[in-house]
Amino acid sequence: MTTSQGQAFLSQLADIKQDLPYSPGLLRDMFSLTNESSPASLERIGQTITQDQGLTAKILALANSAFYGLQGKVTSVSRAAALIGMKEIRNLVLALGIQALTHDRPLPRDFDLYAYWEHNLATGVCAKLLAERVQAEDPEVSPDSLFTAGMLHDFGKLLTAIHRPEDYSIIHKQAHDQDLPYCSLEEGHWGIEHGVIGAMTLNSWNLPKELTEPVNWHHAPEHAPEFAVQAKLLCLADALHHSLLDPEKPLSSQAMALLLEFGFNYKEICKELEWVMEDDSLEQFISHLS
Q: What does the angle CA 114 – CA 277 – CA 108 come to, to the nearest 5 degrees?
């Protein structure tokens, strides 16, 4: 594979928004309406979403899952937003959009969709935990935004599996056989890695840089021109969940350096993350998406 073929793939990413199950403008409106400074009412957000009845039904199914632990069934998006938060509704819209991309194209056999969602959501949970620990010293770091970035951080892998299944399988097999990081093998295969693939696609959906920059740089946060702290936290969260999945494998020197930089307690964070991952409600939530 050559870098020119990788660049050709990148050039096609903007067209992927046409495969979303809703108007690409919906995401732009959602992020505008749920911005910290937005005065938008819950009713207006609900009205924006309920224009699509199919999407509304899926959002309510997720909102009523055990993951959110609501007392009683919620029957409107505006009520769900009031109970679980407007940014959670935004995350559900994003997750359902990504889920829909897998419906029309078969995934390669070696792509585990359940494991994909499990890792992305766990990384989001961990990134939020880390962000809460640094927010007092750095108010620009938003735990909610870090959760969303975590949920999206491996989107580029999914896009590769959907649109370039042969390339995905080659890289995946090399990573398994050689016990090397997937991202470094991507660079050798076609000169791009999944952070860039995901971020470029999300940029074409008009998502804010607060989300796309950490996704872009989560394997090389020291090079992030913007939102470097967020990229570092996302990088560490990604590594911590991988460590939880494979306790025998030591943390990378990069992750160890970030633990020291932020002064985090490794065992304490892993214990919190493990507790979340053992909750049956998370498994039920993932089953809605995979």
A: 15
Collect contacts of 86-92 with beta carbons under 8 A, ≥24 apart. Answer: 86/33, 86/34, 86/42, 86/45, 87/34, 87/144, 87/148, 88/63, 89/30, 89/34, 89/45, 89/49, 89/59, 89/63, 90/30, 90/31, 90/34, 90/148, 91/147, 91/148, 91/151, 92/59, 92/62, 92/63
Domain spans of the chain?
3-19+108-289, 21-100
pLDDT in tens, 167-214: 999 999 999 999 889 999 998 899 999 999 999 999 999 899 999 999
Contact by Cβ (8 Å): 206, 223: no
114 confidence band (pLDDT: 50, 70, 90): very high
Q: Identify which has the larger pLDDT, 37 or 195.
A: 195
For 3-19+108-289, CATH number?
A: 1.10.3210.10
CA distance 251 to 248: 9
Question: Residue-wise over 96-118: b if at least 16 C-beta within 10 A, else e?
Answer: bbbbbbbeeeeeeeebeeeebbb
Please list the alpha-helical segments (H only) found in the chain. 3-12, 24-33, 42-50, 53-63, 77-84, 86-100, 113-134, 143-152, 155-163, 165-178, 182-190, 194-204, 209-216, 228-245, 253-262, 266-277, 280-289
Q: Of 179, 282, 204, nearest to 19 (Cα)?
A: 204
Whether the model clears a pTM of 0.85, i.e. scores above it, the answer is: yes
